[in-house]
Amino acid sequence: MNPTALAEALDTAAREARPLPGGGSGLTGTAEAYAVQEALVARRLARGERPTGVKLGFTSLAKMRQMGVADLIHGRLTDRMEIPDGGRYDVSGLIHPRIEPEVAFLLGAELAPGGDPAAAVAAVAPALEVIDSRYDGFRFSLPEVIADNTSAAGYALGPWTAPAALGGLRALANLGVLLELDGRTAETGSTAAILGDPLRALAAAARLAGPLPAGTVLLAGAATAAVPLPPGTHVRAVVARLGAVRLTTGEAA
Ligand code: OOG
Ligand code: MG
Question: Strand runs (DSSP E) across the chain, as ranges?
Fold first, then answer.
């Protein structure tokens, strides 16, 4: 399948909540896969969506093991994917949503490939990411998940904290992470699971997808495995010292 046709098929799969069979795309290389992702995101931008940032995937062993892949990937975020902290999020138009706890960075200055990530960070926040693979059963090859904009669907950001309030970004290297569904612990972990230090994710994002302009939001990748996200669920993620972020999914129809 050519890149434009695959981008259209993935876009339609997302809009109609009808998954494509994984393993059948014929995609072989990552360069080709990122060309499909670019065409897919271009379709969203053509509908009036605004780019807001970048996300990384498979930055933790927990995620690599869960999904059976072993390479860092990156995708694009848009304003359509934003979920207000504490807000309601309708999952009825999704295929098989999952949720995962993350750390987000806000860039106060441009970050070029090879630039100093710490110098560019204006603030950090706890985050929730909703992922929804457009492939049947969440089963895909690495090029396929890249083409599918790394399963991106939605994200919520908690309160921003300036690095100075943490005594510097070194504090981020080992903070406890908790994911709760309806008040029950679903996953626990540490920010150390994210490439040993989430700041490394920022450097990797700049290298892979940079230069990243000031104002970019970066999701550094889940610190734990993702869990299914049913309707009618209260979700809370807590990152120690950064605080909490919440969302509630709409009731089942
Ligand atoms: C791909 C998205 C991976 C993460 O944080 O590792 C990701 C997937 O798991 O379907 O967002
Ligand atoms: Mg993620």
Answer: 51-57, 73-78, 82-83, 87-89, 98-107, 121-131, 152-157, 176-181, 184-190, 217-219, 227-228, 234-239, 243-249
